[in-house]
UniProtKB/TrEMBL annotation:
Boundaries of every HTH tetR-type domain copy: 24-84
Record protein name field: HTH tetR-type domain-containing protein
InterPro entries the UniProt entry points to: Homeodomain-like_sf (IPR009057), HTH-type_TetR-like_transc_reg (IPR050109), HTH_TetR (IPR001647)
One example GO MF annotation: DNA-binding transcription factor activity
DNA-binding region residue numbers: 47-66
Length: 208
């Protein structure tokens, strides 16, 4: 059993706040609509009024969820729950460092609440990014900041050299990307977490 230990030393990590099912659903509908419009017309070519109409909300509601068009399209970026952070710093959830870092990575999928993203959602996201290099830069910045926060967590828990943490995070990141690609193409009926875990086992077998 692992005890929760709060931390205020993770400034680069976005901590997921509890949200109602309605708020989760509306935020996802706004982001999906923004990504659809960006894929169809281009990020610079659609207006906030068009986004509100596509998402089925008012312009005022948009700003109750997101600060602007960029954040709405990117979806606010990766985040973790405080419980996942506390469990990791306390030595959990398994007590095995690599497995626990992998569990922390999967926590990003859990943090938004509600049902996980489906194949259509991932496919739209990929098309949106491929059609709009500006958004790729924005997404990279989000993940760079998030990655720095994860590295701080790894350093707090482990006394290993920083380069080991960087290598581990790089391997997990690439494994995660490949797992999403497998899921999106429709050739694998499993959910992303299951694909990711199996791919990680393959990586560990190849490197052993």
């Amino acid at each position: 059993m692992f005890h929760s230990t709060s931390t205020d030393r993770t400034p680069r990590l976005r901590i997921a706040e509890p949200m109602s099912a309605k708020r989760v659903r509306t935020s996802r509908e706004i982001t999906r609509a923004a990504r659809e419009l960006a894929a169809e017309k281009g990020y610079d070519e659609f207006t906030l009024d068009e986004l509100a109409e596509r998402a089925g909300v008012s312009r005022r509601t948009l700003f109750n969820y997101y600060d602007g068009k960029l954040e709405a399209t990117l979806g606010g970026g990766p985040q973790l729950t405080q419980d996942d952070i506390d469990t990791f710093l306390a030595g959990g959830p398994t007590g095995e460092f690599v497995d626990d870092v992998a569990a922390l990575a999967l926590g990003v999928l859990r943090a938004s609440g509600g049902a996980p993203m489906g194949r259509d959602d991932w496919s739209i996201t990929q098309r949106c990014l491929e059609a709009n290099p500006k958004l790729i830069i924005g997404a990279q910045r989000q993940f760079e900041g998030f990655g720095e926060g994860i590295l701080e967590l790894l350093a707090q828990r482990s006394g290993r050299p920083a380069v080991e943490h960087q290598l581990l995070l790089g391997v997990l990141g690439m494994t995660f990307k490949i797992s999403i690609d497998q899921f999106s193409c429709g050739g694998d009926d499993r959910e992303v977490p299951d694909i990711f875990r199996d791919n990680l086992l393959t990586v560990r077998r190849l490197l052993s």
